[in-house]
Fold this sequence. Notes:
It is globular and about 45 Å long. Helix 4 (126-137) links the parallel strand 3 (112-119) and strand 4. It has helices at residues 8-16, 62-77, 96-107, 126-137, 153-158, 165-177, 195-208, 225-231, 240-253, 282-295; strands spanning 20-25, 81-86, 112-119, 141-149, 181-188, 212-217, 220-221, 259-262, 272-274. Helix content is 36%, strand content 16%. The strands form two sheets. A seven-stranded parallel β-sheet has the order 1-2-3-4-5-6-8, with helices on both faces. By secondary structure, it is an alpha/beta fold. The model is unreliable at 50-54 and 306-320 (pLDDT under 50). The structure holds iron/sulfur cluster. Iron/sulfur cluster is lined by residues 31, 33-34, 42-43, 46, 48, 89-90, 120, 147, 324-325.
Amino acid sequence: MPGPIYSFGDYLKQHFEMRVHKVTVNADFSCPNRDGSKGHGGCIYCNNVSFNPNAERKAPDIAAQIETGRKIVKKRTGAVKVLAYFQAYSNTYASVERLRFLYEQALRCPDVVGLVIGTRPDCVAEEVLDLLASYQQRGYEVWLEYGLQSAHDETLHRINRGHTFAEYCDTVVATREWGLKVCTHLILGLPGEDRSMMLETLTRTQEVGTDGVKLHPLHVVRHTMLAHEWRKGGIELLTQPEYVSLVCDMLERMPASWVVHRLTGTASEDILLAPEWCAGKWAVINAIYAEMNRRGCSQGSAIEESGQIPLAYGPGKQLHRALCC
Ligand code: SF4
């Protein structure tokens, strides 16, 4: 582990020995928790526009999206290769024929070395895992990102997730049996949860097994059920210091081998209602590194001791990375 946190960037550098970056594509998927097959209205915090600016428009051609994104990330980061990131809504929610058509459009694009597929854990058929495993066997990098958010069924019910922790467990076990990598999304500060519940989610996630994690603070964006509840005064949100402290508690306790794909989530100012600190990410990330330095801890150090932590990040182009599946 090169730094105090084993980031997705570190993983990609080690794995590819060159700069690799994600390019987000919108394949115009829907979500079973919105169209009625699992539920209506979606998760209480979900305004899908908040994590993909293309989500309201008709999806353009996958190859065209990747070509545009590839040029941008190459110029901005110097990336040599890219991963196609299917992010908006539930990106396994279609027939396997349709999925093959979409995924293979991406894989045929120049410089694409793999796929990152964001989806719900109750929305992945065995034949889809088989398809994705076949890409991995051909040498592509493949990650499944599953939204879990909490391991507590009462919380999942409270936020209208439409699935249980047991469904997440079954899917993660099956996915890893196919040899595919799993990144688990967790939200800190969900209604009704205290620190011990959040840490219990981490422990249960560890017991099931995962390869990576994305951490987000609960934040309120316009046009969501959460916004309605928040306006009525029924929602208490974490302060930035509370979030930073919780993230560090989790990092200390998670295996050093887990790839940390994200440390915080943001939303653009035009849709973010609260908390204000979720409008930016660098202050949060720097505060997390500073707190780890102050504690003298690193990822997994509560499990195994390790060394000093540099303050490694500075301001850059603001990218909004918000809650998703
Ligand atoms: S967060 Fe994901 S699972 Fe929940 S409603 Fe939105 S798209 Fe569907």
